[in-house]
Fold:
Amino acid sequence: MFESTQGAMLDGLKVVDLTGVVFGPLATQILGDHGAEVIKIEGPGGDVLRHTVTPRNAPGMAGNFMALNRGKASVMLDLRQEEDREVLRGLLEEADVFIHNVRLQGMERLGFGPDAVRALNPGIIYVHCSGFGAGGPYAGLQAYDDIIQAASGAATLLPRVDGNPQPRFMPSLLADKVGGLSAVYATLAALIHRMRTGEGQFVEVPMFEAFSKFMLQEHLGGRYHDPPSGPAGYQRQLDPGRQPCPTADGYVVFLPNRMPQWRPIFAALGDADYLDRHGLETDQQIRAAQPEIYQHVRTLTPAQTSAHWEEVLRAAGAPCMAVRDLEDMTTDPHLEAVGFFARHEHATEGMVNDIREPVRYGAWTPAPPGDAPALDADGARIRARLAAKRGGEG
Structure:
C-alpha cells in the first residue's frame, strides 16, 4: 500500500462534453470522478435525461440524470447561433478532450468536425461516441440501447434460456454503459499517446462494435474457429437450470466450482449420498449432470431461509449469496461498510445517494462527488472567463 497523496489522478485535464443520455455522460463522469474538469454543453432544454422521470424539486433534475452528471459544469449553448458557437470554440481551444455523440455530418455542418477542431487545437483528443462504426453499411444510423441489443444478438439470449420465443431486452442499459466504459479507456489511451508523442487524434467509439465485442467474448463459442467447431453461445450461461434456488423466504444462489465442493454441500443440504446414488465422481460428470443436480437442489432449499443457506453453504465451501432486491441496495451492509454510497445534501434536491468511484487506489483517495448541475448553472461564469481571456489576448 502507498500513502494517499493530495491531488486527483486527472487534475488539470479539461474535458468538453457535448453528450447526452447515458453513453457519453457515463464516460465523462468517470473522468470527472478521477479529477478532470468536465464542462457539459447542453442545448436549449438540456440533456433529455433531465426529463425522463419526475424530479423531486427543481425542473430538469431527474434522479438518473443526476446520477450520471455529478460534479460537472453546465453551459447551455444553441449551436445554431454564431455567438454560442464562438463560446464552444473558446472552450475547445483550451481543452484536452472533446467528446460528443452527435453524428459527424451534423458536427461538420456546425463547424466542429474533427479537422476544424484540430485546427483550433492540434493536441486535442476528439472522441466521437457513435452508434455504428464508419465504413460499414449501418454507419450514420441512429442507435439507442434497444437498437444495439437487437443488432448484437443480445435480445435472443433470454429466449434461449427460458424457451419463450419472444426476443427480449436485458433490463439494463448495458450497451450504453459498455460504450461509456469503452470511451473511457480509449480516451485515456489516446492521452497517454499524446504524452509520448505530443499528437492529438480522432477517436471513434462505436457502441455496436463495443457491445458486440462485450457479448461475444464468451458467446462466440464454436464460431471462434473457422470453419466453426460448434454453435455460437456459451452453454453454461444459456443453461435453463442456471436459476436462483427458492428458499423459505426468498431465493439464494450458490456456485461450487469443483467436484470436491459438492460432497459437503449435499451434506449441508441434507442429502449426503446424492452423488453416490447417481454415480457422479468426476468434474466432467458433474458438469454434464448440472441441470438435473440443480433441479434436485431446488427441491431441498425451500426447507430453510436464505440466511440459513448462506451460513451453511459458505461453511461447506460454496460461494453463496441471497438474492437482493434493488430496493435493498442502499442499505446493503457491505456497501455501507466500504462507503459505496456518498450520501450528501444537494443544493436543490435535498439528501441524495450518489455512488462513489468504486476503484480504490493506494496513492489517491477520490474526493466526495460534487453536485449534478442545474441547466446552464455555470454559463455566465464560463462566458465571462472566456470574454476576459479574449480581452487579455487582444
Remarks:
- The mean pLDDT is 94.
- DSSP finds 16 helices and eleven strands in the chain.
- The longest strand covers residues 37-42.
- The two ends are 50 Å apart (CA to CA).
